[in-house]
């Protein structure tokens, strides 16, 4: 109801208090989510995952380190190398061709049109 709206807004209308609260909320929320994810992983690491079949699955497991650690590091290195190659050797690949037209303050390019309400 109105009490909840006034509490969230910080008054009877959207004002500086509302913006301050929402900015603070949007700043703190990612840290809260990261902390909850960390706690979730900690509990999952401590107790293990549930096995609904009731069978012992320890024989099928391989350790995370070094197998998946090396795999993840290799994937990150390949992605960084791909992005560096794209940026350093083909910097204009995704650019707009109109960016290379010499500037002329007396001539507007034909594809630039004002918004419909002008």
From TrEMBL:
Matching PANTHER family: CYTOCHROME B
UniProt KW keywords: Electron transport, Heme, Iron, Membrane, Metal-binding, Mitochondrion, Mitochondrion inner membrane, Respiratory chain, Transmembrane, Transmembrane helix, Transport, Ubiquinone
Cofactors, names only: heme b
Occurrences of domain Cytochrome b/b6 C-terminal region profile (ranges): 54-118
Organism of this sequence: Praomys daltoni (Dalton's Praomys)
Protein name: Cytochrome b
Membrane topology: Multi-pass membrane protein
UniProt record similarity statement: Belongs to the cytochrome b family.
Cofactor: record remark: Binds 2 heme groups non-covalently.
Keyword check for Nucleotidyltransferase: no
One Gene Ontology term from the biological process aspect of the record: mitochondrial electron transport, ubiquinol to cytochrome c
UniProt xrefs under InterPro entries: Cyt_b/b6_C, Cyt_b/b6_N, Cytb/b6-like_sf, Di-haem_cyt_TM
Pfam (any one): Cytochrom_B_C
Ubl conjugation is among the record's keywords: no
Quaternary structure and interacting proteins, as annotated: The cytochrome bc1 complex contains 11 subunits: 3 respiratory subunits (MT-CYB, CYC1 and UQCRFS1), 2 core proteins (UQCRC1 and UQCRC2) and 6 low-molecular weight proteins (UQCRH/QCR6, UQCRB/QCR7, UQCRQ/QCR8, UQCR10/QCR9, UQCR11/QCR10 and a cleavage product of UQCRFS1). This cytochrome bc1 complex then forms a dimer.
Subcellular location field: Mitochondrion inner membrane
Listed transmembrane segments: 22-44, 73-90
Cellular component annotations (GO), alphabetically ordered: mitochondrial inner membrane
UniProt GO molecular function: metal ion binding; oxidoreductase activity; quinol-cytochrome-c reductase activity
Function: Component of the ubiquinol-cytochrome c reductase complex (complex III or cytochrome b-c1 complex) that is part of the mitochondrial respiratory chain. The b-c1 complex mediates electron transfer from ubiquinol to cytochrome c. Contributes to the generation of a proton gradient across the mitochondrial membrane that is then used for ATP synthesis.
Signal peptide: none
Domain Cytochrome b/b6 N-terminal region profile: 1-53
């Amino acid at each position: 109801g109105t009490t909840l709206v006034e509490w969230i807004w910080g008054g009877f209308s959207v004002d500086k208090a509302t913006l301050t609260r929402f900015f603070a909320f949007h700043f703190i929320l990612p840290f809260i989510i990261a902390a909850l994810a960390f706690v979730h992983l900690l509990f999952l690491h401590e107790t293990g995952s549930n096995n609904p079949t009731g069978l012992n699955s320890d024989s099928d497991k391989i350790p995370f380190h070094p197998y998946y650690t090396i795999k993840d590091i290799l994937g990150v290195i390949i992605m960084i190398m791909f992005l560096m190659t794209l940026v350093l050797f083909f910097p204009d690949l995704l650019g707009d061709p109109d960016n290379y037209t010499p500037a002329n303050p007396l001539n507007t390019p034909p594809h630039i049109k004002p918004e419909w309400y002008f």
